[in-house]
User: Fold this.
Amino acid sequence: MLSQQDLKQQAADAALTLIEPHLIAQAVIGVGTGSTADLFIDGLAKYRGRFRGAVASSERSAKRLSDLGILVLDLNEVQTMPVYVDGADEINIQLHMIKGGGGALTREKIVSSVAQQFICIADESKLVESLGRFPLPIEVLPMAREAVARVVQKLGGKPVLRQGFTTDNGNQILDVHGMTINNAPELERQLNNISGVVTNGLFAIRPAHVALLATQQGVRRLG
Ligand code: 5RP
Assistant:
């Protein structure tokens, strides 16, 4: 029986195999945040020197990359990336995701938007029939926290402030419990339109292109 850690490792290894053809001299790779992304970063270090560098979706990943000798570029220096590789808190069969459990959702959405392909890596526990059991993170400007929370409550959610947490952008996170998510792209748009919301953790308007989900029977590819 493989542990969750083993499964995460398998998903990260599968992503490395998948992106290997893209690891060429000019290539810049988009890198996500979290425990699965950490394993991907560690594996990517073996290819150091074969590709130009990486854009990170958090200060934490940027540090891990540079500690391993991988050049970390500012997104403003980069026009395109062949791939962005990251984990997810939940993913459904349509490859819509909830992300932001680690609080890096805003930079994750921005960096991934510049990549040609979003490759989601996860263990099978992240695959769900419908999104929403995992509380949906929303990054808010601190001054707008209560105003956003009231609108979210009217939409049927129960927002809870992530205590003692500040994002890399100096903002706060509301974790929204109990949301019924029938139409993820529509809810993503709706939440984006609330004044004071920086980003919400639904990645559905632009879902993953490929999901590599590690199971006890091997890595299952969706997309
Ligand atoms: C961070 C994220 C992560 O991708 C998500 O929380 C999954 O993390 P892990 O790989 O540790 O399970 O969205 O903001």
Q: What stands out?
A: Residues 6 and 198 are 34 Å apart (CA to CA).
